[in-house]
Each structure stands twice: as structure tokens, then as C-alpha cells.
């Protein structure tokens, strides 16, 4: 390279570095109102997050505590500005409908895109608004009512499978629950049964598990987190294979259902006239009927949404049900109250099908689930991206490209929001113990909250009530202390070990 070319390259490089640092300084100046936790040069605070999934909750908690009573702290990951928040007033600003500018997700969600595309969870802006409008009717109570029998039949299979664990000193109930919730979401989202509970692990189930694992590993791997370096890893090949299996499966179900619906237009009219009594509709059928600007959704549009339900709708409920079972096994008084309520509802026959009406009557069990989700929110933190400078209050600016991390786990356990915050007290939900809707955030809040929360509540009530009607839950021998791990959802790294006795 000649001297002039070298000089030009050096000037360009210096220009880029100068521009970069000017930007970094502008962002830091704008964020002077926020307490900044000091980090190391270049990497910022990234090294504090290298402890693995069992350390993330503690690390985020420590970072937020650094700002003392403010409860929001500014950190940097390689100059990327991030505000970690557990202050419910700030969260109200971020999540409420007044902040429609703050509906886009942060970069961390891009690892989901190869599988889910840009469906409801990962999309932003106009696409998200259109999809949310189309999908909202799919969660109408008349539609959800039809799914109760899917919860029922799959819950029965699980209760039967649990027989082999009766009277053992200790066993891990999580694998039973996760297969049950996987069967439920498959049948409700796609209208087909994969019988995950009956079969040896299928290729589809294995692929779902592989994808959930890879998504987490990528978020914290200094190599795999970069799209340019990821193809060099072993996970890249595994991911491609898993995605092929998952997409082929969803596409083949979509094509099959589209054909069936087209061939039986007459039957479809019957379905429209009498939702749920003639033929159960899956979420997929509703998507096949949906239109945008009078045009039907393409197979790819539908696949994105069906896969999103598959991802978002099984691990979340599996983890919540498992934690509820763990808490009940270790709190006999609370279990007794839940069981007595069920005895009243099912006085004549404990195996009577759990119809929608009976699920509505399970008030105490609902408190148990709410309290479980307060202590162990399935999605313990989630994030938004700021796409343009936005004013918070009194001229405080949140600069473009800042990630806002909503620390639901921290808000839910804040002693200023809940008395005795680390204790399991379901009855606190009889009255309103939290100060504001933004101080209890297991399903997020505002326009981008969880679309599946009513579905989830029905499924959790159905499944948990089935377990406790059939088995007494007892603490494991020896005692089992769970180790929390914040993976794609909050889990116990060492399983959910309990004991069961036939009732
Ligand atoms: C205990 C169970 C569940 C919990 C705790 C939960 C929690 C959440 C949370 C916190 C969000 C917001 C995430 C974010 O902002 O990144 C969310 C979004 C979402 N959830 Fe759930 N969820 C549960 C069950 C379900 C189920 C069963 C479904 C589907 C059948 C579902 C579908 C979705 C979808 C599609 C979104 C994205 C909504 C949007 O961005 O408009 N969830 N969920």
C-alpha cells in the first residue's frame, strides 16, 4: 500500500474512532441523571455477567442496588448503554400505553429470529401492531373455553405417569410437567397431538429443547453472540438441523390444515356459527382465517406465530407449575387450603372433568399461582430498545439505542411493594398488597403484555388441581433446595424434587 493510501486509511480509522467516542460521550452526558455503575475499559460491566445463568439474577440485583433507593442503574456492555430497572414508577413509564414509542424489543431477542422469524414476540413497530390486532381475538374466553378439554386429557396422562413415583423419597417432577405442557401447546396451537408424554423423545421435541438451549448459550457466549462468529461454532450446525425439523413440521401442519379447511368450506361455516361445539379450533385455524388488507396470511406469516406460541407457551407454564408444586410440597398449610377448596368443588367426584366453570371457582389456587409467579416469575427480566431520544421526566433524556431491562424478579420481591417479600403467602392476593399494577409484573404490563396470560392461568389451574386432587405433595428426603437459573425462562438448575403419596 502506498503512503497516501495508508494515510487515508489511518485518517478514516481515526475519524471512525473519534465519531464513536463522541457518540459514547453524548450518550453518557445525556444519561448523567442516572447512577452509573463503574466498569472496566472497553468491556464496561460485561465481565460482571460471566457467572452463568445461576448468577444473573444476583448480578442484576446487585447492579440495581448500587443506585440505592433510585432502583435503576446505568451499565455498559462494550459501550452499549443499558438501564436496569426495578423502580415501578420508571417501569410504568416504560411499559404503559403512554409510551408507545417503547414497544420495540432489544437486540437480545435476535437469537430467537432464526426459529420464530418476526412473530408477535420478536417483531416491532407496524408489524407488531397488525399481528397483535389479528391475534387478540384468538385469546377470547370463548376460544379459551374449548381448550379446557385439552388441558384435561393431557393432565390425566401426566397424573397416570406420576403413579410410578408414588412413595419414593425423592424425584424430579419437572420432566413430567414440561412434556405435559408441550403436548398442550402443540394441540392448542396446531391442532395436532405429538404425544410427547407417551413416546420416547421425538425429533420434534428434541429440536425444541436444542433451540431453547442454544438461544441461552448464545446470549452469554462471547463468541456465539456475534452473528459473524456463530457459524464457526458446533451449535450453529445443531441449530440449522433443529430449525429444519421445526419449520418442516409447522409448515406441513399448516399445509394440511389449509387443505382441510378449503375442502370443507361447509364445515368451516358451521365452526363460525357455533364456536367450540362442532369442532375445536386451534390457534392455527384462526390464523388461517385471518386477513390483513383483505389478504390471507401467508404460510410463513402463520408459521412465525405458531412457532412463537410453541416457544412462549410451554416452558413458561412448565416452570410456573413446577415452582407452584414445589412451594405447595414445602408449605403443608397452604396445600391443605388449596386441597380443601378443591374438595368443595369436586365433592361428588374428584375425577370429574375440570370444566371451565370449576376453574373459575378455584380462587385460592389462583392466589397460589399468583404468589408463585411473584416469587418465581417465569420470565424474570425482559427488555425494550429505545429507537429515538425520549424524555422520561423533567427533561431527563433516555438516548436512542439504550436498552431498558425490566427486572420483574426484583420488582416482585421489593420490600417496599410487598410485606415479607421472600415468603410464600398466597392470601396476600386477597387484598391488594402491591402498590401499583407495575409493582407486580410476571406477565409484563401495558400494550405489550403477555397475550397468553388467561390461557396460561386456566392451564396452570387445571394441571395443578389435577395433581393435588390425586396426590399429597411432600418435601423431598433429603430436603431439596432449588438453585435458580435464569435461562430463556426461570428454572431450577437442580430440578424440582418432591415426594408424592396417593390420596
Ligand atoms: C406462566 C406463563 C407465562 C408467563 C409468566 C408469561 C410471561 C410473559 C411475559 C413477561 C411477556 C413479555 C415478554 C417481553 O416483553 O419480552 C410475554 C409475552 C408473550 N407471551 Fe407469555 N407468558 C406465559 C405464558 C404464555 C402462553 C401460554 C402463551 C401462548 C399461548 C404466551 C404467549 C406470549 C406471546 C405471544 C407474547 C408476546 C406478546 C407481544 O409482544 O405482543 N405466553 N409473556
TrEMBL record:
A UniProt-annotated Pfam family: p450
CDD domains linked: CYP4 (cd20628)
Protein name as catalogued: Cytochrome P450
GO molecular function, one term: iron ion binding
Nuclease in keyword set: no
Keyword terms: Heme, Iron, Metal-binding, Monooxygenase, Oxidoreductase
Protein origin, superkingdom: Eukaryota
Cofactor: heme
InterPro entries: Cyt_P450, Cyt_P450_CS, Cyt_P450_E_grp-I, Cyt_P450_sf, Cytochrome_P450_Monoox
Similarity comment text for this entry: Belongs to the cytochrome P450 family.
Record-listed heme binding positions: 450
